[in-house]
Each structure stands twice: as structure tokens, then as C-alpha cells.
Amino acid sequence: MISADDAIHEPAKVQFEAFLDEHRKALLDSLDGVTEEQARASLVPSRTTLLGLVKHVTMVENVWFGEAVTGKSRAELGIPLTADESFLLDDDDTIESIQDAYRETIENSRRAAASIGLDDLLPGNRRGPLPLRWAYMHLLRELAQHCGHADILREQLGLTSELGDA
């Protein structure tokens, strides 16, 4: 994985992927050093928890690189139909299981996008065909937002809030 700082002179796709990977890592790292109870702690009025954030971004990655790239439905992919549902934790969700699922999804996303150019259209988005560039920007916005949420939740738990360079 190349860092965003090291990708300055790389092609745009490599730059996007470097920024995405830094934010992905920050979200995975947000669960480091927390207990299962802390990861599930409801600290804000919404359904947002540290564990729920990582479960949610797993769904988001599947939407962009499963649904949009392949045209498969969310039901076929086995992911929630709505973003709100993706924050809901099952009794058997653990830090390890959610991190493993997200790591697997990240690898699937990388494979799905590997042979696609930034201006190539993704056929399976509900808005209609969109270029990969747009999907990367949307995902980066989503990951950055949730890194901020994770940072605040960690602070509320009395933990360090530094989630890397993201």
C-alpha cells in the first residue's frame, strides 16, 4: 500500500486508491484497543457506534464495488437494502468478525476496480451509469466522514483519538 504522500506524482487512480486505503485503515484501526462493550457503546442519539461504523462502511464498499461494478442486487450480494440497516449490530457481530468482513470487502473492492479506468462507467448504480472516478470520490467522502465520527466516539470513550493521517 502506497501512502497518499508518496502518491503525489502517481497517476490519478493510484492517488485515489492511496487516500481510500489510508481512510480504510483508519476505520479498521478505530477498533484497536477497545473492548467489545466499548465497540458497541451507543454514545450519540443515532445508531452510530464504532463497530456499527465499520459494519456500515463494509456495506458501502459492497454497494460501490459489488452492486455498481457487477450490477448484482443488494439481495444477491447479501447486504442490507438501506444504509440505516447497515449500522444495526447482530448478537454475533464482534470486533474480529466485523474487521475480517471489512478486510475481505476491501480486497474484493480492489479486485473489482483493478481493470477499470477512472472514466469507465459502472453499470449497476441506482442513479444510472457513473464513472469509477465518481464512485471513488463518493466513497472517499463517506470514509472521511466516518473517520471523523470514529475519532469523536473514541474521544468519548476516553481513548486516543489519533487515527493516522486520514
TrEMBL record:
Domain of life, per lineage: Bacteria
Pfam families cross-referenced by the UniProt entry: MST
Name of the protein this chain belongs to: DinB family protein
